[in-house]
Amino acid sequence: xxxxxxxxxxxxxxxxxxxxxxxxxxxxxxxxxxxxxxxxxxxxxxxxxxxxxxxxxxxxxxxxxxxxxxxxxxxxxxxxxxxxxxxxxxxxxxxxxxxxxxxxxxxxxxxxxxxxxxxxxxxxxxxxxxxxxxxxxxxxxxxxxxxxxxxxxxxxxxxxxxxxxxxxxxxxxxxxxxxxxxxxxxxxxxxxxxxxxxxxxxxxxxxxxxxxxxxxxxxxxxxxxxxxxxxxxxxxxxxxxxxxxxxxxxxxxxxxxxxxxxxxxxxxxxxxxxxxxxxxxxxxxxxxxxxxxxxxxxxxxxxxxxxxxxxxxxxxxxxxxxxxxxxxxxxxxxxxxxxxxxxxxxxxxxxxxxxxx
Length: 357
Fold this sequence. Notes:
The protein is of the alpha/beta class.
C-alpha cells in the first residue's frame, strides 16, 4: 500500500491548482491500494476514516490526538508519497527511516518570499532541506526545478522524476477558426499580482495593431473595473466552465502569459502555457524563461513586439503552431516515461529515473 500525504481531491477543491495535480497523479496510481492522509495540528476532531471503492481509503487525523494512528499507518506502508513541502512538517521524522517520495509542486520557500510571507518562508526552508536531502526521490514539474534543488543544496546527485501534468483535452483548429479580420488575443486566469494583469491591460491600450480581446476569469468584477478605469476599447470578459475554455483557445491566435524572470517562474510549468501550446495559441511573454519550455524550443511572441505591432505573418503563425505542437508532444512523452517509472518505484521497484543526476 502507498500512503499519500494530502487532502483528497473532491468536488469542493477541484478548481484548486494543487488539487488538480494531486488528482492527476492519483489517476496514475488508480490500480494501486492506497490511502490519503490529511494531518492537522489544530483540527480533525474527531478523526475520520472513509473507504472509497476497493483500493482507496481516506483519513483525516489530528497530529496530537491521533499520533499513534499516524505512526501505525506510516510504518505499515511500502511508500509515503508526500504532496508539497507545505504538507511535510508533520512527517519530518519519517524522512529518516521510511521510504519517502516528495512531490515538490514548486519552490515553496521562494513562493512565500515572493508573496511577502517571510515567516512562512523561514518556517518551510528547513522543511524543504530535510525533504530534499532525505527523500528517496523527489518529483518535480520541470527539469529546471531539479537543477535548482541540486544547486541550492550543493548536491552532486538528486534522484528525481520530472512529471509535469498535461491535460488530455485537445481541440482541433479548423480553417474557419484561423481566419479573422483582426488577430484574436486571449487571457485565461485570475487577477493576482504575479499574473501582471496591469501590465497586460497597459499593453492592450498601447498595441499598434487592432485586435479582438477575450478575458476568461473568475474575477470578472475586478477585470471590468480595471478595464473601465483605463477606458480601453471593448474587451469580452467572461467566466466559463473549464471544458468551454478550449473552444475559446481554438479560435485564438495569441494568449498572454506574462511571467517575470524570477526563480519561481523559471522552475514552474504553468497550466495556462501548456494549454496555449496544446491548442495552437501562441504565447505572448515578457521573457521566455518559464520552466522547461525554452529548453524544448517553444515559439512565442514577446510583449514588446506585440505592442509595436510586429506580428507574424499567417504562414509564420502556422509554423509557430506546428513547432509548439512538437514541443508539447516531446514534453508529454518525457513526462509519461518518468510517470511510469515513478509508479513502479513507489510500488517497490528499483530507482530508475530518466533525468535524475
